[in-house]
Amino acid sequence: MEITNPHDKFFKESFTNKEIVTDFIKGSFPKELVDNLDLSSLDLDNNSYIDEELKEYYSDLVYNCNYRYLNIKISIIFEHKSFVPDYPFLQLLKYIIKIWDFNIKQKENLIPVIPLIFYHGKEKWEYKKITRYFTGIDNNLEKYIPDFDYLLMDLSKYENEDIKERIYKNEFLKISLLIFKNIYDEEKLKKNLENFLILGKLYYEEEKGLKFLESVIRYLYINLENTRVEDIVHIIEKISETGGKETMTIAMKLKEEGRVEAKVEDALNLIKEGVSIDIISRCTGLSKTEIERIMKKR
After folding, report:
1. What is the pTM (predicted TM-score) of this model?
2. Which end of the chain, C or N, has fewer beta carbons within 10 A?
3. Which helix (H) or strand (E) holds 142?
4. At residue 143, what are phi and psi to the nearest 5 degrees?
5. CA 219 to CA 201: how far, in whole Å?
6. Cβ–Cβ contacts within 10 Å for residue 141, how many?
7. pLDDT tens, 172-231?
8. 35: which DSSP letter?
9. Which of 128, 125, 77, 130 is closest to 99 using CA atoms?
């Protein structure tokens, strides 16, 4: 699964965890669906059904799951542009048809798909039936328009306390959703980050907790413009001594990666100007071999 967007990366690191996805489904899906799903049967589908056209707007994680005696697919579709698209139904219809085309090519029966759009933009997402996108139609015409439902997780509709206390149980899920919800208000996120991260305090002495912290730090490092990585580490140090030590190492790696990326960017700009490899090497500190490798990847 190619990850080309920092929001996607954090989303996929969180939602490939079966415990997190199970809790997410229990808290986000209608009860009549949850009651008929065998969530112990959840199995990640390693395919992505997002085509080149949809990739600009969405990424997806797809799970196979048993619904009564049927195998179905649950698609969690992450909207990473953080704005409400004009025709989500049309995009979803293309997406579902792509799954069914895959079923046909594999000589399988068509599999029902439950799509859920995960949205974390500032504006509220207005859910409209597909027939509302047409004007002037009557009942006779409506029956020729394909209609279906989708589920929506619109984080703008939830208060922080709803996520922390009333809906979900898994601490890592709570933290992920709280960070997604507040990522576009940097000051508010910084003010509340300690309260968010402390939810997972019991796990920061364990490998899975430290791995989760690494994904959090990388996500915040890329998306927060006015927050130093040291500030994030300091917050974690107050919560967990072990977590603080581990995240300091991660912070150092991120800074080094940032320096390397800056050198590569400088090299690319100089290459575009036709500057010789020798001069680029002296200016950036990159070896000639590294520069030649960059040139081949252009």
Report:
1. 0.81
2. C
3. helix 139-142
4. -70, -10
5. 19
6. 11
7. 999 999 999 999 999 999 999 999 999 998 888 888 888 888 888 888 888 888 888 788
8. T
9. 77
75 phi and psi angles, rounded to 5 deg: -105, 120
CA distance 42 to 35: 14
CA dihedral sign of residues 159, 89, 81, 219: positive
Taking the CB of residue 47, how many other CB atoms lie within 10 A of it?
Answer: 13
Query: How far, CA to CA in Å, does 66 sit from each of 20, 70, 114, 206?
Result: 18, 6, 12, 32
Where in the chain are the domains? 1-181, 261-297
* SS3 call for 183: coil
Residue 88 · residue 60 · CB < 8 Å = no
CA distances from 162 to 30, 155, 174, 239, 271 (A): 17, 10, 10, 23, 52
Strands 58-67 and 70-79: what pairing? Answer: antiparallel
Query: What's the CA gap between 170 and 25, in Å, rounded?
Result: 12
Q: Is there a contact between 43 and 65 (Cβ–Cβ < 8 Å)? A: yes
Residue with tokens 């590569």: 264
Half-sphere exposure of 263 (CA within 13 A, CB side): 18
